[in-house]
Specification:
- This protein is α+β, with helices and mostly antiparallel strands.
- It has two domains: about 180 residues, D-amino Acid Aminotransferase, Chain A, domain 1 (2-Layer Sandwich); about 80 residues, no CATH class.
- About 30% of the residues lie in helices and about 25% in strands.
- The strands form two sheets. The protein has a six-stranded antiparallel beta sheet with strand order 1-6-2-3-4-5. The protein has a five-stranded antiparallel beta sheet with strand order 9-8-7-10-11.
- A hairpin with a 2-residue loop joins β7 and β8.
- α1 packs across α7.
- This is ATP-grasp domain-containing protein.
- It comes from Neptunicoccus cionae.
- InterPro entries: ATPgrasp_TupA.
- It holds the Pfam family ATPgrasp_TupA.
């Protein structure tokens, strides 16, 4: 068969992600890859794995729920987010003020007290459901962005077993509509690739540039993917004045939907297939 595109491989992975029963469609080595991805997809386990690999991660604590996370003295700046979730749902970047109010840079909202934030979070959780926002909470340190953005830039690195290929740099406060977010796409050498992804309108007033430690983002991803022994996973990283910092793993970016131009669908698909071959995995043929 022809080499699958990136989205074809991603859709194949999404099928097994959706239900345990689908795992029988794959051989044992491929099932082990999925099991590893499920394990490190949970944010606290991802942090622990990054630490094992010598990659810095965000200082954090795990709480049973939002009540526990916001009880007692709070740091001047901190982040609360679901332990399991996606699409930035429930992510709050908080600055505490001297009058007791809280300001969220992510949502551009003020909360009169920790109790008010707790109530707001519970309402969001009830609407989102457990797959988009878990009840368990991470309270993290507020990451300082190396380029000075109030909402730290995301660096979403498309990491394959054969090496990182592509980096999406993204400024994405949830209080802004999608067409006011800002994106840039780079290859592993830091060369801007232009508009290679659908729906990447860039806010004209937000100017993105390469951080000085771009190479460290690539090195961290190469290390993490090699140590995990998976064919592909997107690593979500931060660039800080202290260096590259791990944020989370994303095994099924964009929920398996096609998102790149045909040229890059082919390029990424080839890298993924090469990684599958090198690891001896089998994504399409039924196990014998």
């Amino acid at each position: 068969m022809n080499t699958p595109t990136y989205s074809q491989l991603l859709n194949r992975r999404t099928q097994v992600w959706a239900t345990e029963a689908n795992k029988t469609r794959f051989d044992e080595p491929t099932q082990r890859e999925f099991q590893k991805l499920v394990h490190i997809n949970r944010k606290d386990r991802g942090y622990a794995f990054a630490k094992e690999c010598g990659v810095a991660s965000v200082p954090h604590d795990v709480f049973t729920d939002i009540d526990a996370a916001l009880t007692g003295p709070l740091p001047d700046r901190f982040v609360v987010k679901p332990l399991v979730g996606h699409s930035s749902a429930g992510v709050h970047l908080i600055e505490t003020r001297s009058d007791g109010t809280l300001w969220c840079h992510m949502t551009n909202k003020e909360f009169a007290s920790p109790e008010a934030l707790t109530e707001h979070y519970k309402k969001r959780l009830a609407k989102a459901g457990k797959f988009k926002m878990s009840a368990e909470i991470l309270r993290e340190s507020y990451v300082e962005d190396s380029l000075g953005f109030d909402v730290p830039l995301d660096y979403k690195v498309y990491g394959f077993y054969t090496g990182a290929v592509l980096v999406m740099q993204r400024y994405a406060p949830v209080h802004l509509p999608y067409d006011q977010w800002a994106f840039a796409m780079y290859d592993r050498n830091g060369t801007d690739q232009g508009q290679i992804r659908w729906k990447t309108d860039t806010h004209p007033d937000v100017k993105l540039s390469l951080p000085d430690n771009f190479d460290a983002l690539i090195k961290a991803t190469d290390t993490l993917v090699k140590q995990a022994r998976v064919s592909f996973v997107r690593t979500d990283l931060y660039s800080t004045p202290q260096g590259a910092v791990f944020g989370e793993f994303t095994p099924v970016p964009n929920a398996g939907k096609e998102s790149f131009t045909p040229e890059y669908e082919t390029i990424l698909g080839q890298h993924w297939q090469n990684s599958i071959d090198e690891l001896g995995l089998n994504y399409f043929n039924k196990p014998t």
